[in-house]
Amino acid sequence: MTTEDLSILGLTLRVAAISTLLILPLGLAAAWALARWKGRGRAIVETVLSLPLVLPPTAVGLVLLELLRRSGPLGRLLDRSGLELLFTWKAVVLATAVMSFPLLVRPARGAFEEIDPRLLGLARSLGRRPATVFVRVALPLAWRGIATGIVLAFSRALGEFGATILVAGSIPGRTRTLALAIFHRTQIGQDGAAMRLVLLTVVLAFFTVWTSEILSRRRERQLRA
Amino acid sequence: MISILLRLPLAGFRLEVDVRLDAPAIAVLGPSGAGKTSLLESIAGLRRVAQGRITIDEEVVLDTAAGVRLRPERRRIGWVPQDALLFPHLDVEGNVRFGERAGGAKQSFREAVEILEIGPLLQRSPANLSGGERQRVALARALASEPRVLLLDEPLAAVDVELKSRILPYLLRIRDEARIPMLYVTHNAGEAETLAGEALLLRAGRVEAHGPTRDVIAEKMWAAIDPRARFENIVEGKLGASDGSSPAELRLPGGVGLTVPAAGESPGRAVFAVAPDDILLSAEPLTRVSARNVLAGRVLSIELSGGDAMVRAEAAGITWRALVTAAAVRDLGLAAGSPVWLAIKTQSFKRLR
After folding, report:
1. Residue closest to B339 by CA, chosen among B288, B300, B293
2. What is the ipTM of this complex?
3. Chain B partners of A223 at a C-beta cutoff of 8 Å?
4. What's the count of helices (H) and strands (E) in chain B, helices before strands?
5. pTM for this model (two decimals)
6. What digits encode the pLDDT tens for the residues A127-174?
7. What count of CB pairs under 8 Å joins A to B?
8. What's the rounded Cα separation, in Å, for the pair B327 and A92?
9. Residue among B89, B128, B145 minimizing CB distance to A127
10. Where are the alpha helices (DSSP H) in chain B?
11. Residue A140 and residue B153: Cα distance in Å, rounded?
């Protein structure tokens, strides 16, 4: 394990964590809204939100790139506010956030939908405002689905490649995450060094999923006890 | 005082109610699917499409014409649904405290726990409660939120529920001690008469009858409307102490004493049920008979259905229902107004709590 390996790991973890934290409030709000909204247009919104799941990541990356380039609609806004985004670690965060968003929303929405709406109505009739009901009833009851979503989103962020390389490039020490570094090393013939990173990702993925399994089992036991 | 003017589309029909309810306790009767639950949910503010005007103690909680639709959290209504709907992620104490008001009376939690006798259950999870316990916790939770009105939906299985799971004794305490007005959905005529002076009979979304409970139940042939209806004699009184082997005395509010099974460890206020077919009728005074309770009374009405006759009779300040054969009624020459003697064995009194 070299210091370069470790710094790549550090960058990847940091980016994945920030991206997951960033989409958490937005994703939960979207999941909650979709679960409670029975009106028309719901299917379309759901489809649009799920697009990053089915599109090639490079396609999503290109769309982001077009939006964010200096002459693009969002790029102009960014330029004016003096925020440099493209080809920085922030661009990596953005790319992973967009790609992992639907993976957080889907399981969370499913978990919210399983809550008996009468239970939420009852909580309100006990004098609690909707926001309080969300925090004290909906969140704890949907905990398992939300945890699954967080794990999926975080794992996806760890391995994001296609969208990242388009908006952030593969700049050593700045935007080269694990997935990008593995690709880069095989390209320059350092298969052994790439393999070390592969092992790192395996360990990382294993602990992420394992931790979530343990947490959700403990929660299940609590609810059943 | 609750006044309700309500229109609510339901599957197959429309709920249309226009009533003013005054009694401290009101029984809501009617067959399954008549709209009883929807009525309660509309009052609680949980039916968004409800149209009309509802006031509670002069406060308008719904007035669609004026654009008023008070949010459920502002209505201060204690809703207890059929399936109790406890929060599965909270223990019993967490459930009961959920609705505690920030500026509310500090003793409301204690009082709710005491009235519903759930002290020993506080640390339990809802998954480990029996049906009756769950219902009591749901009631305590509603009470602790200091509601202006309680809306109670009879538990689904209540018609055949075990004696110790019956919720009625607790409702009587809430009515008399906590003094919170309540609407109680029930299929049990005896419970309705005991608890509520006023009753509302719903059928296919319409108010079929509204008035004093005994009139609604007797005159409108409630049994014919609600196939799940259950008639039961419910007596409430003060139970004297006994050593646990000999029978105890239940003193009725009117002063008459009844002989009932041994009190065990809990004398004091008690509620008993007697099945209508456990009461023997006689057209002459009974003197030498094994039944420990013989009451002189008067027939109020007789309802015939097939070979059976439901005889309503007044005795010891209580309206009793006795189920006998139509032939027996004929042989005894019973009719409304005629004197009658009721014989009830000690063991026919089943204690509800």
Report:
1. B300
2. 0.86
3. 88-89, 125, 127
4. 10, 21
5. 0.87
6. 999 999 999 999 999 988 999 999 999 999 999 999 999 999 999 999
7. 60
8. 91
9. B145
10. 36-44, 72-75, 92-97, 108-116, 131-144, 168-173, 189-195, 213-219, 222-225, 326-332
11. 27
